[in-house]
Design goal:
The structure is a homodimer. Chain A has about 350 residues and is an alpha/beta fold. Chain A contains 13 helices and twelve strands. Chain A is globular. Chain A starts with a strand and ends with a helix. At the A-B interface, helix 8, helix 9 and helix 10 of A face helix 8, helix 9 and helix 10 of B.
């Protein structure tokens, strides 16, 4: 197995990418390819006191870098020599099994769709982050790749999210909820109302286990294993959870550092507080897979450090081992069959 | 001043409504009218050991009650004798200055628009809850009244929310942010992109102080004083903040009750933890005003207790004193003038 990494993407590139990759190369039985400016990578290796690359790790040169301000739609034309575009071309050409980048989300989305292509039959790709809940973890799909959705897109997201929850969270029969503003089936915009019917049909055919609408309040409390949403609302959901967790953490810090006694209180609660912190540490979750692309593409957090890169590699290996893209391809065929059958009836 | 209360709406009606109203009647110089089933209200008064109603408080009979399962659009026809419909009719007939209900949001929205009517020129009404942030509080508009929005609706929400923030939060020049999935002006759906331009124009004319897009993550951190959104995303934002706060509180409770030492830690941090709890206590915030209706209508939380009802009354009095509806009416006229002028140019 060969995992390709964009060595130049993200706030801490190339150092964090190199360190995370080296750690992963030492721990996992996978070849790793760092794509980026050769000279900069060599300099960074020297700076990081890495005399030789671990076995199975190599560097592929790409002289340009995608900028956060680049227009995503022009990246594959204007930045054809960038680490992101070259890396994705290697993935498309089967010189690797998965691609990881901490660079611009928009550019990665656009370039992946154009270079690696979507799985035939998949209408739109979706970002599917795994988020911590009171009951464990859940998959949110989509968190911002496709801001405007037709009901059919949401139905495909439900299938892809369900397969991803099975393989990554190990849940045999994930509960799929449709993000909505109320429980009743007539809630939401016409998109949610139509999607509700499609998800019910997918439930009847056994492709997913649809448990109905889910309100945003129930998501962090563990109300579903897969939350299906258009990219706009999904992004709002994800980011308000992150912002509220950050707000509460700030307040807690204030509470615990108020005086000597509260500091002592913090010491008493240390292990619990560390568990809570670890729970919401995005770095150990890995990156966010871009589902619907014909090969595994993983978006690592823009501010990824080496630990986050390491877990993104672990996640990429996992996606290749489970052949998530292949499984999605098979299931989408089943969905189409169902659709044709229902047209015939 | 006369405040009308739906005595039968909400999970704890009529007891919580009566107790909250009695407390408010004793504290504020306002007349209060409880609308509902006379016999039930009298029984409740007996049960609550209230021998006589406070001065300025009275009961108006309404034999029916709006059910949470009623179709909102049919309430004013099928539940014409309900406490909600009768109360709103009193408001429309100038037998009161504001109306408060903890009953069905959908029914209150629909019946208010039909009976009390929107302010002329206002395209849609909006629910504008006040939410706690790291910097104080902010107004979210809309949180679920209008799930599908045109850009012009969002522009009107921005004006109404700004006026509400001035009067209720005492902010002279509130920072108005447009809820979006990125900072750049080309982010979001065509609705957000068009709304962005309209809000810029309102900023130029001095009607609002528009500070650009705001991501959901920045809302709890205090990134804006007024957050403008369609009702769907706004509802997702509000409820994910609530759900995450609840999730974090549950985790904290677990941490503090783990053993004797952590319990001692909780004692040391008591005052801070109580402040944090108070911060996110919706009951002290009051209800959620339904802005755009020609007279003050306030939706109290469905699970309101007497404290929440008391604060909803305080808020209603505040809305009447600041003549929020009148101010919105004046400003909407200015908006129209601006529009006509720009058409002429």
């Amino acid at each position: 197995m060969r995992i390709i990494l964009d060595a130049m993407g993200g706030d801490n590139a190339p150092d964090a990418i190199i360190l995370g990759a080296v750690r992963a190369a030492n721990e996992f039985a996978a070849e790793l390819v760092l794509v980026g400016r050769g000279a900069e990578i060599l300099e960074a290796l020297k700076r990081l006191n890495i005399a030789t690359l671990p076995k199975g790790m190599e560097v592929a040169n790409a002289e340009d870098v995608v900028d956060m301000h680049d227009d995503p739609s022009t990246v594959i034309r204007r930045r054809r020599d960038s680490s992101m575009v070259v890396g994705l071309q290697m993935l498309a050409a089967k010189s690797g099994d998965a691609f990881i980048s901490a660079g611009s989300t928009g550019a990665l989305l656009s370039a992946s769709s154009l270079i690696v292509k979507r799985i035939p039959g998949i209408r739109r790709a979706a970002l599917a982050p795994v988020i911590p809940t009171a009951e464990g973890r859940c998959v949110l799909i989509d968190s911002g790749a496709t801001v405007e959705c037709k009901p059919e897109f949401l139905a495909q997201f439900a299938c892809m999210g369900s397969l991803f929850a099975k393989s990554s969270l190990g849940i045999a029969n994930p509960r799929v909820g449709l993000l909505n503003i109320g429980d009743e089936d007539n809630k939401g915009t016409p998109v949610q109302r139509a999607a509700y019917g499609l998800l019910q049909e997918l439930d009847r055919t056994g492709l997913i286990h649809f448990t109905g609408n889910i309100e945003a309040r129930a998501v962090p409390l563990g109300g579903a294993d897969v939350v299906v949403s258009d990219g706009f609302s999904g992004n709002v959901l994800l980011k308000s959870i992150e912002g509220t967790a950050q707000f509460m953490s700030q307040q807690l810090k204030k509470i615990f550092t108020k005086n000597l006694l509260t500091k002592l209180g913090a010491v008493f609660c240390k292990s619990g507080l560390e568990e809570l912190k670890a729970m919401s540490d995005y770095r150990t979750v890995g990156g966010t897979p871009l589902l619907g692309i014909s090969k595994p593409v993983i978006k690592a957090h823009g501010s990824s450090d080496d630990l986050a890169v390491f877990h993104a590699v672990r996640q990429a290996i996992d996606a290749v081992q489970h052949d998530l893209s292949g499984t999605i391809r098979d299931q989408i065929n089943q969905m189409s069959i169902t659709k044709e059958q229902s047209n015939v009836e």
